[in-house]
Write a structure and sequence with these properties.
- The protein contains no helices and 13 strands.
- By secondary structure, it is mainly β.
- Strand 4 and strand 5 form a beta hairpin.
- It comes from Rhizopogon vinicolor AM-OR11-026.
């Protein structure tokens, strides 16, 4: 299955449909948390430009429109670590999930996926063991 085309998107949680992938405050400071936050159509920190680095491996960069910084997996790359914004380019693998139009945003090895634990604003997106049946790891790429 293919991945979304390069472009600018709002990344909507599958499990919590009003929560979007949001760079907290749109800050360009390294280590700024990426959180779930209620949809705000005027907020540029909820807009992400996806650059496809390698279509065969489904490797991409996610760049926050408000700050120009990149989503990164954080270090070390292990379950429970928060996803953050960083001026240094980070890479992700986009993995189709079981339902059409739903994708996991994974580490490049596909072992961990970006997960939103609940529907509360300011909940940090964290890495969890990839599971294509877990809707808290699912994201929809909604055109901006």
């Amino acid at each position: 299955m293919s991945i979304p085309c390069a472009g600018t998107y709002r990344l909507r949680s599958v499990k919590y449909p009003n929560q979007l992938f949001d760079l907290q405050g749109g800050s360009a400071t390294a280590g700024t948390p990426i959180i779930g936050y209620g949809n705000n159509h005027e907020s540029q920190n909820m807009l992400w430009t996806m650059q496809v680095v390698d279509m065969d491996s489904k490797t991409v960069r996610l760049i926050d429109v408000a700050s120009g910084t990149f989503a990164q997996c954080g270090t070390p790359q292990k379950a429970g670590v928060g996803v953050v914004g960083n001026p240094t380019a980070g890479l992700f693998k986009i993995a189709p999930m079981k339902n059409l139009g739903e994708f996991a945003i994974c580490t490049t090895d596909g072992q961990l996926a970006c997960c939103l634990a609940n529907a509360n604003n300011y909940t940090q997106v964290t890495l969890q063991k990839a599971n294509d049946s877990d809707s808290s790891q699912g994201w929809m790429f909604c055109t901006a």
